[in-house]
Specification:
Number of helices: 7
Radius of gyration: 21 Å
Largest sheet: 2 strands, antiparallel
Structural class: mainly alpha
Helix content: 55-70%
Shape: elongated
Number of strands: 2
Strand content: 5-15%
Distance between the termini: 21 Å
Length: 201
């Protein structure tokens, strides 16, 4: 069972086999990405201190460096905070869905049987989550490719190579797509094997 799966107390049962492995991997990615909060907080503190000291350009160098161009500025640090926050968000959404730690309409769900919850989840994943993720992945990929082709970057001494950040949009929604498929398979398996019936007794 997935409770044995390096899981934390309160984590849902993720099943066994390939589905279990994929869902476990997505959760691991999300938990690893959540640690980006620490450098984000450090960057906020550094930016506030440098702003108070009225520092504009922090470092400069001879050749362009990926993301930063030819210098590191206060604007670069501000952009980096948002870049890291965006990456963290994209990589943690799928794990939140799998571990059931996302926002739900609890006043409705709390009165449902385990079987009804599984049916609602299957419907929601097939009709809403999976199609939405497919659409955002398709358009997000095009969004990142166009950003790369036009060499999109900052106009105010911030960060460059914005395609790198935008590439995490299809990646994040791709992880959610996999999560939705995996959870749907798990719930269908549990519904058809009547695994949930004993939970309603």
């Amino acid at each position: 069972m997935a409770q044995d799966l390096d899981s934390r107390s309160g984590d849902p049962d993720l099943g066994t086999g390939l589905v279990h492995t994929v869902l476990k991997g997505i959760v691991w990615i999300g938990r690893a990405a959540a640690w980006l909060l620490m450098p984000i907080l450090a960057l906020v503190l550094i930016s506030v201190a440098l702003s108070a000291a009225k520092v504009g350009t922090i470092f400069s160098w001879e050749t362009d460096v990926f993301l930063f161009g030819a210098k590191l500025t206060l604007s670069s640090l501000g952009d980096l905070q948002w870049h890291l926050f965006g990456i963290m968000l994209m990589l943690t959404m799928a794990g939140a869905i799998i571990t059931d730690s996302h926002v739900r309409v609890d006043f409705l769900r709390q009165n449902m049987s385990a079987r009804t919850m599984a049916i609602v989840d299957v419907f929601g994943h097939l009709v809403l989550l999976i199609p939405l993720c497919a659409v955002v992945m398709y358009n997000g990929y095009d969004f990142a490719v166009r950003s790369f082709a036009m060499n999109e970057g900052s106009n105010y001494d911030g960060m460059y190579d914005r395609f790198f950040l935008k590439a995490f949009i299809p990646i994040g929604f791709g992880l959610m797509l996999l999560a939705g498929i995996g959870l749907t398979i798990r719930n269908l398996r549990r519904l058809f094997t009547k695994e949930l019936e004993h939970l309603d007794d």
